[in-house]
Fold this sequence. Notes:
alpha/beta; Nucleotidyltransferase, domain 5; 5-stranded mixed sheet; 5 helices; about 20% strand; globular
Amino acid sequence: xxxxxxxxxxxxxxxxxxxxxxxxxxxxxxxxxxxxxxxxxxxxxxxxxxxxxxxxxxxxxxxxxxxxxxxxxxxxxxxxxxxxxxxxxxxxxxxxxxxxxxxxxxxxxxxxxxxxxxxxxxxxxxxxxxxxxxxxxxxxxxxxxxxxxxxxxxxxxxxxxxxxxxxxxxxx
Length: 172
């Protein structure tokens, strides 16, 4: 299973691709950051996010996309702009025929660090450890995107194991 994680932001949108090779092993495929100039009109920034993510999907061929749920914004205007970026990210995924899973920040941190209130530095350290990276990703947003992908893979693996266990129990 190959997953594209997306950490949406109005100035920086991170993306990260992780693949689960077997029941436990995770493999780093790639990551990056869409840097958006706040000086450009919002419609141009949204177009940049869409086009970049569309290209990333074409290049890395994920089977699923996972994004962070909106949880907090300084004000309503910020929340609306972030919602627009999330909508464009979802559109990029769905236009390529991919499903989108959404995860709360606490769930992401719990899946990666084991503690829902972990600091960004702890998340980045665990992402590097789990993916056996020598250097940190190019931005905290890319590291968060990798964490989102890892969260989805952990969730997916658990659901697969539970489904297999239910099937084994049902066949007895």
